[in-house]
């Protein structure tokens, strides 16, 4: 049995692309198409390895692998665009990886760490979070093809993005390493907190997306680099304090993001009304 008989051909853009030219199915796939998908697979491996570390009560390593998975998740899409290797297959792989890495993995780590103290209630909270992550990513995939959405709204996510939700939902773990006891009372509050984060993912909360930033001023480049170095150094030396402050800062930013959204909405509504007035005149 040949390899072609044992495994279906890798078609990064789908079989429809090849239905009119069957000989193209036999050509070699450029290596650049494989690189982003390999990075995505490595992200899944890092996420699932984080669960193993949690089962072994090695939560420091589990959080570290979660951060590695988040880093790889941020790289795969950029690598695909850099190599001009974006594909439908890669987009689907990325979404499935996000469900695993930012849905299942943080929920399981949190359950093993503290939610199991409340038994059924903690497990229900973990389930709600995972389902919310899957729903949020499914909605995100649909909105990617919504060309009727106003351009200014594309600067905002609808609901908390899955990677940010994973950072937030693990806040009790960070605080736990700073001294918060993992008892029944704490687990009860954490269960409620987990459910809230899940609902924020599937809500209509507008969250500003940094991906829309086209560039920064030349004068801000050096300070920005120093800030990044400072943050990485703080993360390496004061890991739990830095992660706690990062999660709290993100939560504090959400009301400000809503204000930005409303301000942009009023601004574009005024501009639209002005254009209509000029057209009528």
UniProtKB/TrEMBL annotation:
Family note: Belongs to the CDP-alcohol phosphatidyltransferase class-I family.
Topology in the lipid bilayer: Multi-pass membrane protein
Gene Ontology MF annotations: CDP-diacylglycerol-serine O-phosphatidyltransferase activity
The encoding gene: pssA
PANTHER family: CDP-DIACYLGLYCEROL--GLYCEROL-3-PHOSPHATE 3-PHOSPHATIDYLTRANSFERASE-RELATED, CDP-DIACYLGLYCEROL--SERINE O-PHOSPHATIDYLTRANSFERASE
Catalytic activity entry: a CDP-1,2-diacyl-sn-glycerol + L-serine = a 1,2-diacyl-sn-glycero-3-phospho-L-serine + CMP + H(+)
Span of domain CDP-alcohol phosphatidyltransferase C-terminal: 221-255
Residues covered by region (Disordered): 1-20
Subcellular location: Endomembrane system
Enzyme class at the top of the EC tree: transferase
Xref: PROSITE patterns: CDP_ALCOHOL_P_TRANSF (PS00379)
Keywords annotated in UniProt: Lipid biosynthesis, Lipid metabolism, Membrane, Phospholipid biosynthesis, Phospholipid metabolism, Transferase, Transmembrane, Transmembrane helix
Protein name: CDP-diacylglycerol--serine O-phosphatidyltransferase
rRNA-binding recorded as keyword: no
Main location: membrane
Entry-linked InterPro entries: CDP-alcohol_PTase-I, CDP-diaglyc--ser_O-PTrfase, CDP-OH_P_trans, CDP-OH_P_trans_C, CDP-OH_PTrfase_TM_dom, CDP_ALCOHOL_P_TRANSF_CS
EC number of this enzyme: 2.7.8.8
Transmembrane regions listed in the UniProt entry: 33-55, 61-83, 95-114, 120-138, 159-178, 184-203, 240-258
């Amino acid at each position: 049995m040949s390899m072609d008989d044992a495994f279906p051909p890798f078609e990064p853009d789908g079989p429809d692309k090849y239905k009119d030219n069957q000989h193209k199915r036999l050509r070699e796939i450029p290596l650049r198409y494989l690189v982003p998908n390999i990075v995505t697979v490595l992200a899944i491996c890092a996420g699932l390895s984080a669960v193993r570390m949690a089962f072994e009560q090695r939560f420091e390593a589990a959080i570290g692998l979660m951060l590695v998975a988040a880093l790889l998740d941020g790289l795969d899409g950029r690598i695909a665009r850099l190599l001009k290797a974006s594909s439908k297959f890669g987009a689907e792989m990325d979404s499935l990886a996000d469900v695993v890495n930012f849905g299942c993995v943080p929920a399981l780590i949190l359950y093993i760490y503290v939610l199991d103290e409340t038994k059924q209630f903690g497990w229900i909270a973990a389930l709600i979070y995972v389902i919310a992550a899957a729903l949020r990513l499914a909605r995100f995939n649909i909105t990617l093809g919504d060309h009727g959405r106003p351009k200014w709204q594309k600067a905002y996510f609808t609901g908390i993005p899955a990677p940010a939700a994973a950072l937030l939902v693990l806040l009790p773990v960070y605080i736990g390493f700073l001294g918060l006891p993992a008892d029944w009372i704490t687990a009860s509050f954490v269960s409620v907190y987990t459910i809230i984060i899940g609902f924020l993912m599937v809500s209509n909360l507008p969250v500003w997306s940094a991906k829309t930033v086209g560039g920064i001023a030349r004068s801000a480049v050096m300070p920005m680099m120093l800030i990044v170095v400072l943050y990485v150094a703080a993360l390496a030396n004061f890991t739990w304090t830095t992660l706690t402050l990062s999660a709290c800062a993100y939560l504090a930013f959400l009301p400000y993001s809503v204000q930005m959204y409303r301000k942009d909405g009023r601004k574009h509504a005024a501009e639209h009304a002005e254009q209509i007035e000029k057209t009528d005149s």
